[in-house]
Design brief:
The chain has eight helices and seven strands, in the order ααββαβαβαβαβαβα. By secondary structure, the chain is of the alpha/beta class. A seven-stranded mixed sheet has the order 4-5-3-6-2-1-7, with helices on both faces.
């Protein structure tokens, strides 16, 4: 069976692409998480995503416990520039071109910076409307990612998908993500992600779903 057809068939338990997107946006507005899978020819992984605006200590603990532990904060290009967050390396040779910046830590309100509560404090400090570069120490335990201005229509990555989802849900364009792993430390693939979603009453959507949703909105506005 073709991988794309098989993928859509597996995800159809959450509805068609439009229905999945509507549920994902509604869940985000209710403060819940969403699972996002990318294309098979990219990372072929699923990320657990929460809005940065409504992030709780419990959700951060879930990201640390059930995922890889490398919790990333997806920011717009403008916000990353405002916070003076340079690229992690001068020459990004990552196969996916992920926009990692230097890591960060809140200067106030944290201890070692590694606990769930401390990481939430760092996230909330970074996304504050009046946040300044001087509010953040470098390096730290939160990994900011700089999204491309065009979102998933420019780059079909989890970073852009996260920022697009937050915009579509009516939140600040900032979210946190982490790659879901299996208990044995291997990366969770679609079958495991679907089971995880059912266990935690979440929906699984794809980057392709976000692209289609945005394209439909764009066409409707023309």
């Amino acid at each position: 069976m073709n991988q794309s057809i098989e993928k859509q068939s597996d995800m159809s338990i959450f509805g068609d692409p439009h229905a999945r997107m509507e549920r994902a946006l509604d869940d985000l507005r209710q403060g819940k998480g969403v699972l996002v899978v990318d294309d098979e020819d990219r990372e072929n992984e699923g990320d657990l995503i929460f809005s940065a605006e409504n992030l709780t200590n419990e959700q951060m603990a879930m990201l640390i416990r059930d995922c890889s532990g490398i919790v990333c904060l997806c920011l717009t290009d403008e916000k990353a520039t405002e916070l003076d967050l340079p690229p992690m390396v001068a020459d990004n040779t990552s196969s996916m071109g992920t926009g990692f910046t230097v890591t960060i830590e809140a200067k106030v309100g944290v201890t070692t910076g590694v606990s769930a509560a401390d990481r939430v404090t760092t996230v909330k400090t970074a996304i504050a409307d009046d946040a300044k570069p001087s509010d953040l120490a470098r390096p730290g335990h939160v990994f900011p990612l700089r999204a491309r201005p065009g979102g998933v229509l420019e780059r079909r990555g989890h970073t852009e998908g996260t920022v697009d989802l937050m915009r579509l849900a009516g939140f600040q364009p900032a979210g946190v993500l982490c790659e879901v792993t299996n208990p044995d430390g291997t990366m969770a693939r679609l079958p495991e992600l679907i089971e995880y979603a059912k266990t935690h009453h979440m929906v699984v959507i794809s980057i392709e779903d976000i692209v289609a949703y945005r394209m439909a909105m764009k066409q409707a506005a023309e």
